Amino acid sequence: MPTPSTRRSPGGPVLQDALTDALANAFFQELAAVGYGRLSIEAVARRAGAGKAAVYRRWSSKQAMAVDLITKAAVAAAEVPDTGSVRADVRAYLAAAAEGLRHPLASKIIPDLLAEAGREPALATALADGVGGARRERAAALLRRGIDRGELPGDLDIPLALDFLAGPLYWRLTVVNVPLESSYLDDLTAMLLSAFRAIDR
Description:
201 residues, mainly alpha, Arc Repressor Mutant, subunit A, 2 domains, 71% helix, disordered N terminus
């Protein structure tokens, strides 16, 4: 029987990746079921079939666990290949973002986290730095590739363009909860690129 792969925490014990994955899955299931406010490390450990110590060997607190796991999931969802075309890159980024927002767990987790972040400034800051910062950097790299290839203006306001990228899908899938027509992502890609190229500078 193959043994699970392992890794060592900095200055700490060897950690089993299989158990880490089980704890991560349990965290998201528990977060979707009860929300961040009621989530406990004990419940996550119990759902994963582990003890509390297994959690604390990996994360120092509930917030540390939440920020780490949510950031990793959000960054993975924002990874898109360099297709050689800014249009294809933007279309792939939007498709990945839409898939993430339509995930059954995400539809429960995202509104709850936003509500909790409004009540807990430390959580809001951690999520903004971890999730928001990491995702925006992936998208910014996509836009910079387009600038380098001459497909986008060299003086494009990248922070503003990133707001354009994130806003429409979030509004449609999370706020008003309207399904996407088959052509929506193609149309949105075309409109975004037109806006990026036509902004009065």
